[in-house]
Design goal:
By secondary structure, this protein is mostly helical. The protein folds into 2 domains: 146 residues, Helix Hairpins (Orthogonal Bundle); 61 residues, no CATH class. It is built from 5 helices and 4 strands. A 4-stranded mixed β-sheet has the order 2-1-4-3. It starts with a helix and ends with a strand. Zinc ion (ZN) binds next to loops.
Length: 229
């Protein structure tokens, strides 16, 4: 039973190592860096699209203003009454002012778009390195996992032998103890302490444990795990 316990504990430790592999954290960090990059690209693409739409709508509105203005200017040539001419002039000036505002807005949108486009180009340049980092980290993780897999396979093969050496009753006892004590059902006496609960036994408890008749297994007086002396 102790042999089986030691092998199972080894398997548990290997699984723990698998979960805590630094290579896994490195893959996650590299993937997160690439995700940040992708999110920034999406944001810049949205800026470019928004600026493009603003430019288009400013252009359309500008054409409308130009048409209106041409009509008013033609009208102005036919008008004789000074008051009417004045009113037309002021309307034309109003249109020109509006056109100026439109042009300013369009220029701003073009600047936004150009800035976003150069930022996007810089991002595109940075992407291969990020993808390389993900690929390198992933390969390192796979190598580390393959190493663990080999170790696990080796321990499992030894576990088959240890399991075959147990009788049915022993196997049942072992299984239920392992479940009950969260993995370690069979502990060892390590000098004065139990490897299950790591509590030191008193000299009297130590005497009792050590005087367990041959063929029987003692129990830890603290945690009740089977205690192999
Ligand atoms: Zn104990």
């Amino acid at each position: 039973m102790l042999a089986l316990q030691l092998l199972d504990s080894q398997l548990d430790a290997l699984e723990g190592r698998r979960r805590r592999l630094p290579e896994r954290a490195a893959v996650e960090a590299a993937a997160a860096a690439h995700a940040t990059h992708a999110a920034e690209r999406t944001r810049l693409e949205a800026v470019i699209a928004e600026a493009g739409a603003a430019i288009e709508s400013a252009e359309r509105a500008g054409v409308e203003l130009d048409t209106k203005r041409a009509r008013l200017e033609a009208q102005l040539k036919t008008v004789i009454a000074p008051r009417e001419a004045e009113a037309l002039m002021s309307e034309i000036n109003g249109l020109a002012a509006k056109h100026g505002e439109l042009d300013d807005g369009e220029l701003e949108a073009m600047e936004r778009q150009a800035d976003a486009e150069s930022a996007l180009a810089a991002l595109a340049d940075a992407e291969p390195a990020l993808l390389d980092a993900v690929a390198t980290a992933t390969a390192a993780l796979q190598a580390a996992e393959a190493e663990l897999d080999a170790e696990v396979a080796d321990v499992r093969a030894r576990r088959v032998d240890a399991d075959a050496a147990l009788g049915d009753a022993e196997r049942a006892t072992y299984t239920s103890l392992r479940q009950r004590y969260g993995g370690v059902g069979i502990a060892q006496l390590d000098r004065r302490s139990c490897t299950g609960c790591h509590v030191d036994l008193s000299p009297m408890e130590l005497d009792q444990v050590k005087s367990t008749p041959a063929g029987e297994i003692a129990e830890c007086p603290n945690c009740s795990r089977l205690l192999v002396v």
